[in-house]
């Protein structure tokens, strides 16, 4: 990956990401929209704001990791912004120990990365007790920092793309504890600009339940009666309303129209129902 991906777009499409260039989100954005211009943002809220106000054409956001679980903040932001999921992809997450040119494995005594990345490389760090781990705001940002500081005793855990982007070297590749490490990313657009893929076979829905006994069972039974396959269910607390929850579900669809039916059968049981997007399911990654 080179700097030209952020500065010289091939197709004129601007895609926002949270984090620095060279991050896994950067990689996912280019997988979703090859040749796009990447617009890095410091905060996830800034990413959604950029989509909402039209500063960018779309955004690539991580929604779920196979080991660390869901990115809860992004569920909340999806619900509270007029955006829609139009595509998803899976990215195999491979962590690497990265350092500046000239550094060696034996010279590294400090390692920086995002807390989730550090947690996914515990075995490697335990095998190298000389290396003290420090949490940083972003995987690619940790590489950017060590290149700026030119510190041969510091390392970072990040993607191969980050090493290439910042001109650093990989000292140890594929250091994650578990190779079955994948992150699911959504491509989101402003709801007014989002077009549903005619081959869409999956829908994401948010709903709030009426406060009465059996309401969740009734809602899920209604979905089941349609014959849809529920692939995910997640609950999130409603801010400012203790012990009330928003439920998020993903359903596989046999036809696009089945997504509309799913919304219809939920409404009698729910105080709120919102489609977060109807899109084509990501293909499984074959190693």
Question: Could you please describe the fold and organization of this structure?
Answer:
The chain is α/β, with parallel strands linked by helices. The chain has three domains: 4-92 and 181-190, 3-Layer(aba) Sandwich (D-Maltodextrin-Binding Protein, domain 2), CATH 3.40.190; 96-172, Periplasmic binding protein-like II (D-Maltodextrin-Binding Protein, domain 2); 202-279, Alpha-Beta Plaits (2-Layer Sandwich), CATH 3.30.70. It has helices at 4-7, 24-32, 44-52, 72-80, 115-119, 122-127, 139-149, 160-166, 215-226, 257-266, and strands at residues 14-18, 37-41, 58-65, 69-70, 83-92, 96-99, 110-113, 132-135, 154-158, 169-172, 182-190, 202-209, 229-237, 245-252, 270-279. The strands form three sheets. Strands 1, 2, 3, 4, 5 and 11 form a six-stranded mixed β-sheet that branches. It has a five-stranded mixed β-sheet with strand order 8-7-9-6-10. It has a four-stranded antiparallel β-sheet with strand order 13-14-12-15, with helices on both faces. The longest helix is centred in the C-terminal third of the chain and has 12 residues, at 215-226. Residues 1-5 have low confidence and may be disordered.
Give the helix tally: 10
- CATH-scheme architecture of the largest domain: 3-Layer(aba) Sandwich
CATH class group of the largest domain? Alpha Beta
Output the radius of gyration: 21 Å
CATH topology of the largest domain: D-Maltodextrin-Binding Protein, domain 2
The helix/strand class is: alpha/beta
DSSP, total strands: 15
Approximate helicity band: 25-40%
Q: What value does the average pLDDT take?
A: 92
Low-confidence stretches: 1-5
């Amino acid at each position: 990956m080179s700097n030209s991906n952020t500065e010289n777009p091939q197709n004129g499409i601007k895609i926002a990401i949270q984090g620095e260039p060279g991050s896994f989100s950067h990689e996912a954005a280019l997988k979703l929209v090859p040749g796009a211009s990447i617009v890095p943002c410091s905060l996830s809220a800034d990413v959604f704001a950029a989509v909402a106000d039209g500063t960018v054409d779309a955004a690539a956001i991580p929604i779920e990791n196979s080991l660390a679980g869901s990115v809860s903040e992004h569920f909340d932001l999806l619900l509270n912004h007029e955006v829609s999921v139009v595509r998803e992809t899976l990215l195999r997450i491979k962590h690497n120990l990265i350092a500046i040119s000239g550094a060696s494995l034996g010279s590294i005594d400090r390692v920086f990365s995002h807390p989730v990345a550090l947690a996914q490389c515990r075995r490697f760090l335990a095998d190298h007790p000389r290396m003290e781990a420090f949490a940083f705001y972003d995987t690619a940002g940790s590489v950017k920092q060590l290149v700026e500081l030119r510190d041969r005793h510091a390392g970072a855990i990040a993607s191969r793309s980050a090493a290439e982007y910042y001109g650093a070297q990989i000292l140890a590749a594929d250091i994650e504890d578990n190779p079955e490490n994948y992150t699911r990313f959504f491509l989101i657009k402003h709801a007014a600009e989002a077009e549903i893929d005619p081959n869409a076979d999956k829908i994401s829905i948010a709903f709030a339940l009426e406060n009465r006994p059996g309401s969740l069972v009734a809602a899920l039974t209604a979905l089941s009666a349609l014959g849809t396959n529920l692939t995910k269910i997640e609950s999130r607390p409603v801010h400012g309303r203790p012990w009330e929850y928003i439920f998020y579900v993903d359903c596989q669809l046999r036809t696009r129209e089945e997504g509309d039916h799913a919304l219809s059968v939920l409404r009698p049981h729910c105080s709120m129902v919102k489609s977060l997007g109807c899109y084509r399911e990501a293909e499984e990654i074959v190693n």
